[in-house]
Design brief:
This protein is globular. It contains 14 helices and 13 strands. 44% of the residues lie in helices and 16% in strands.
Length: 376
Amino acid sequence: MPDCTAPLWPCGMTGAVACLAGIPDLAVVIHGSSGCFFYPQSLLPVPLFSTFIHEREVIFGSLDRFAEVLGSIPPSYRRVAVVTTCVPAIVGEEIREVLPESAILLDSPGFAGQMEVGYGRALAALDPGIDHEEKGVNIAGLNLLDPFTSGNLLEAGRLLSLAGATAGTRIPQDPLDRISRCGTMTVSVNPDLPPGTGEVAGSLLGLIDIEETFSLLGDRIPGVDISPVLAETSRAEERIQRAADKYLKRFDPPRAVVFGGFAYATFAADTLKRYLDADILMVGSRNGLRASPFPAREMVQIGEISGFLSGEKPDLVIGSSFERSAWPGAAFVGLTPPLRGRVLLRSRSLAGIEGTLSFMEEALNACMDRRRKIRG
């Protein structure tokens, strides 16, 4: 497991901050050093606050510093959440006495685990509530660290609207009062991040899962018509198969390696196998393993990843800038941060029908570009 400074996958502190910072009326204060602050601030597109403690505060206490920081928070924030980092967690200073009574105090140091651990702790602290009168379908699995979050949210809302369902609470990217009034049914755009409330109808990663998820919604929610969604998934399947068949008439199936969070990486591997008959050499998970139809292991160390890539020499690499740099001769598709050297402005989805279409479009174009370079 990587420590708090490991570059390949964020630590639990960063995961907690990413979860809480998605809520627009919640001020997130990182109780720690400048380094603990600037790492998540460099990754998250929202304002964060910090105590910026030094050696003096560690030795003599940080209550005065806390009072100063709390006084600088704009009144537009309804509540405050404080996330403690490694040193304060070890020292164990009692800071509750200077916090507002409504404040959320979350102990989530980097050594407590990976990003998902901190994210789960933060979500539990928020305690999303169920309102049985709420008819909307919640959208879960949202995470500000994820480059696909905004696109996934838009695509999930589009599909729900297409079926005549209402999008409910965005977990956890809605105001606090909305988080406390979630609907009873939820769809997920990233199963690695459970919603912590309600019944999960299923995942929106991949066309098969989309059909299964909406079939369940159609059974459970009166007035929902899933036929437009099923018709669109069928059309998308045909489009992908035509493009993939055209590629396979000219080239062999790619030998591929996929790196990322387990849910995303497994989706990518399954999609490549399904449409391109790709030889999946390895699913390199950043965040643990579950049952997988592909060779899989947790791979979070740069040296291990570089050695594997140079040994296997894949045609196609799905992952982050680290993998692209480690094996630059392969076709590359970005799946997980960091994705350096690219300008990312539009809302790109991985979930939903458009997410599958977008992923296969990028994979096919990357493979064809590589073939042109080889011929040239």
